[in-house]
Amino acid sequence: MPEELTPTPETAVVEAGPVSRWLSENGFENTALERDHLGVEIVQVDREVLLPIAAALFAYGFNYLQCQGGYDLGPGQDLVSFYHLTKVSDDASQPQEVRVKVFLPRHDPKVPSVFWIWKGADWQERETFDMYGIQFEGHPNLKRILMPEDWVGWPLRKDYISPDFYELQDAY
User: Where is the signal peptide, in residue numbers?
Assistant: First the structure.
């Protein structure tokens, strides 16, 4: 009796959603990823094409950056910058959503800033920079927002080692 092959996450074929198909039809290279637990479509793009794709999605109606954030896949692995976009309109009973992910090499975590498309990215990109060290090129004021200016390292990276001591000077 032949052994049945069951797809694994690495081999499973993900059907492209409407946004991924629209991007592909308009010449924007992307990869459809598995939808999240709420059914939100997720697309992966390269950092070199993030800005043109972000501008195209804005023109396509994704006028609200609900959330920008980052996460670490683990020591020695990629960092991820993600963008949760929503189409907001007066007549939408269920707004369309999409999440765009950019996987960045740990040794060179640079991605263009989307601040010039969605102004709400300002503090969100700063927080992601502060916690993960992802550099948002073209951001007008990329500096720490949560940690002290002289803090060393990126506290939410999985390979981060907490300092034994940090002296807070001129705190009062």
Answer: none
Domains and CATH numbers, the chain: 18-137 (3.30.460.80)
* Residue pLDDT, tens place only, 149-159: 888 999 999 99
For the four alpha carbons of 19, 21, 27 and 28, in that order, the dihedral sign comes to positive
pLDDT per position as a tens digit, 28-44: 999 999 999 999 999 99
b/e map of 49-86 (b: 16 or more CB within 10 Å)?
A: bbbebbebbbebebebbbebbbbbeeeeeebbbbbbbb
| pLDDT tens, position by position, 59-104 | 999 999 999 999 999 999 999 999 999 999 877 778 899 999 999 9
d(CA 69, CA 101): 10
Q: What angle do CA 16, 118, 73 make, to 5 degrees?
A: 55
